[in-house]
Amino acid sequence: xxIHTILKKLPHRYPILLVDRVLEVEDGKRIKALKxxxxxxxxxxxxxxxxxxxxxxxxxxxxxQASALLAFSADGRDLDPRAVYYFVGIDxxxxxxxxxxxxxxxxxxxxxRARGGIYKFNCKASVDGELAVEADLMCTMRIVED
Length: 146
Prior knowledge:
Elements: H1 3-9, E1 21-26, E2 30-36, H2 56-73, E3 83-95, E4 104-115, E5 118-127, E6 130-143
Antiparallel strand pairs: 1-2, 2-4, 3-6, 4-5, 5-6
């Protein structure tokens, strides 16, 4: 899945779109995607000027975006402009190594369960095969009427 397809499936845009490409997807089961981390990211100006590190919350956001792409893969849906996606839980988040400019963050997500409009995902992200972050994420989608 290239960036053009990702843009059709996610509502996020620069500077918060954090998935550059989908490498593998097994519909409704798992996804593997990547985020190229570059020094041009706006958050590096303040986090931290002398030692740029990707904020942990943005690594979790990248995993959440990959999770949303996985949720859509099963039914082939594109973005509904009335849809809003919310985190409803983050469990067991652990940060194992810093992520710096020049790193390629590999996002791996497995669908644990989907019940009653709540999705639970097992997520991890790594750099060069070394675990950077892991967490269980839960999200839901709601249609918002004007």
